[in-house]
């Protein structure tokens, strides 16, 4: 899978944690956003939302990992574009359920609010769960058809 990691300025310093947490899954990762907070050019969540949609809609990547301080700004920015199905992922359970139920192509992470001790470990666990199940497979089993029809 081709994955774009797109950090905005307030969460630029968490970029290294995201890249490290993605190591070992066998995906091709494109690190295209801010690599540190306050760098230039300074990208906001408005910018990174547009970039995420651009990469998905031009088929340059299969999946986008973005976020901002709370995850809300990037989520709202990227979801205004067609063909983007983004989930707000705070925990490994969120990631596991989002993949199965929503089958999306983008996630938004809260990279400042609530990102404390072992935040990097939570990222790794979240990615493990995100990629551990078939996208769009449905959960629970009896809701599978309804969920697939709703996409």
UniProtKB/TrEMBL annotation:
MF terms in GO: isomerase activity
InterPro entries: RpiB_LacA_LacB, RpiB_LacA_LacB_sf
A GO biological-process term: carbohydrate metabolic process
SUPFAM superfamilies attached to this UniProt entry: Ribose/Galactose isomerase RpiB/AlsB
Pfam families: LacAB_rpiB (PF02502)
PANTHER family (UniProt xref): RIBOSE 5-PHOSPHATE ISOMERASE, RIBOSE-5-PHOSPHATE ISOMERASE B
Name of the protein in question: Ribose-5-phosphate isomerase
């Amino acid at each position: 899978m081709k994955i774009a990691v797109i950090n905005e300025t307030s969460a630029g310093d968490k970029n290294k944690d995201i890249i490290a947490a993605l190591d070992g899954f066998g995906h091709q990762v494109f690190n295209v956003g801010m690599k540190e907070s306050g760098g230039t050019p300074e990208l906001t969540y408005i910018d990174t939302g547009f970039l995420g949609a651009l990469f998905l809609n031009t088929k340059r990547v299969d999946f986008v990992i973005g976020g901002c301080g709370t995850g809300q700004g990037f989520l709202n920015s990227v979801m205004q574009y067609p063909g983007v199905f983004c989930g707000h992922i705070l925990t490994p359970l969120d990631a596991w359920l989002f993949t199965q139920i929503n089958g999306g192509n983008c996630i938004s992470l809260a990279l400042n609010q609530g990102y404390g001790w072992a935040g990097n470990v939570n990222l790794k666990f979240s990615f493990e769960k995100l990629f551990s199940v078939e996208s769009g497979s449905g959960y629970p089993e009896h809701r599978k058809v309804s969920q697939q029809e709703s996409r």
